[in-house]
Design a protein that fits this description.
The complex is a heterodimer. By secondary structure, chain A is of the alpha/beta class. Chain A is built from 10 helices and 14 strands. Chain A starts with a strand and ends in a 6-residue tail after the last helix. Chain B contains 10 helices and 10 strands. The chains are: A alpha/beta, B alpha/beta.
Chain lengths: 307, 250
Amino acid sequence: MVPSVKISGIVKKYQAVTALDHISLSVEKGEIFGFIGPDGAGKTTLFRILTTLLMPDTGNAIVEGYDTVKDYKKIRKIVGYMPGRFSLYQDLSVEENLNFFASIFKTSVKENYHLIKDIYRQIEPFKTRPAGKLSGGMKQKLALSCALIHKPVVLFLDEPTTGVDAVSRKEFWDMLGNLKHEGITILVSTPYMDEASRCDRVALIQEGKILSVDTPGGIVSSYENSLLAVKSGNMYGLLFDVLDYPGIIRAYRSGEYIHAAVKENAKMHEGIRSFLADRGHEQLVVKTIIPSVEDSFMALMNPLMTT
Amino acid sequence: MTISDQHIIEAENLVKKFGSFVANDHLNFFVRKGEIFGFLGANGAGKTTAIKILCGLWEPTSGHIKVAGFDVYKETEKIKRNIGYMSQKFSLYDDLTVGENFTFFGGIYGLRNKVIRERMAFFLKKLGIENNKDTVIQSLPLGWKQKLAFSIAVMHNPAIVFLDEPTSGVDPVTRRQFWDMIYEAAHEGITVFLTTHYMDEAEYCERVSIMVDGRIEALDTPGALKKQFECDSMEEVFVKLARKGVRNGH
């Protein structure tokens, strides 16, 4: 099958900074594809290139069969783009913003209402309120409605959940799941590693380079070491003691546990427990766990890191 | 030691109204000296309003509130001298150099030039960026910026540092290095009052409050909250409570 988006060898530099360093990957039609990485990884630059707002220095990208440089006008008609920064007209009302976006794409709200119904219904009670006066979660829903109103084939969402609370984030991803059923290809970027699990495939991206492209399950199963979760009554001292244990590859805080990557599991498990007990740790819990995408990301971004 | 010595922040029936809208609805809480206190809540729950009041920027509608021993109605200038503040949205001046930011903020905090120079040298060495004194902020990676912003927020040894989503968008390694700095500051006696949307970070706090629709719905240690709401993680606790909110269209 012809991919929806095909990126080949894209390089983009801003003076001395290489924002994108030879990026190549394909996104299949109908996929939810996540670009997961911190701010400054190059996610926004890549989205601007794919939505024809920026030209790459070298390499090229094809969106639904069109070249992002030569065929930019055609691409603009068929993609929806929700930029990271709130970019609607703050002094227009909710309704006016939506009508405006529909009219510049020569369509009407009525024609594609079915696409936005589930999302828009939640902000419809506030349709006469200026967009600038909406709460964060409502702004996000309006921006998504505006990006969808012309029934795009491909949807680009640049950090739609940044700064959004855990509940609203969950709801947002549920909405994306529904859009997938409409057959829309969705490219979404996020700095939240736990959102990877909501994507069909993800690219882990750091400092302009792709660390890995895989399904969330594939990323986790290619984790090279064993991972232990360790907890004790003295969490502050525990991290330093875990790092002292011979054979530790890396250890760091993760929620209520310390995560410790070790080479082999069988002996390490008991070894580390008695080592920590000797150092005076009580109420010790040591268990083997399945790595998360964040654990994998940390392993890939710096294999020798020991913080 | 009296109670007010131990409690660096005391809020009794804090109310803030905007017209008929009650942004903060009778908040009651205290924060201990040297504590890492997580101030959580959904978007629009009223966290920012409360922080602005605690920083002496907005006057509350009613309630007794003391910050670092000072009254939020009458002694706002004293409060401002005794706190530090940083957020993801605003922290440093992008077009000034590292050194100029230290000098500027040090001056605002009323530090003498000699002290500013000493503190700057101390923090630059600690962050391993001694050679970047003349680097313009905007050319630094985000992780460095955030660590630098934190250093500047505590350069005057404030009683309390307010951190508003300090790690938003930061890579997972830098996020943990940032937390090392938070622990260190708390260890030195600086009280840390912070907001975050990363629920794993809620576990790092000594106590956590969760705001829903202008009210504090829960306040305790992460362990006790998980027990109280029968959840395995702070994420579950948060979702369980914040789902009840109606303000943000949940």
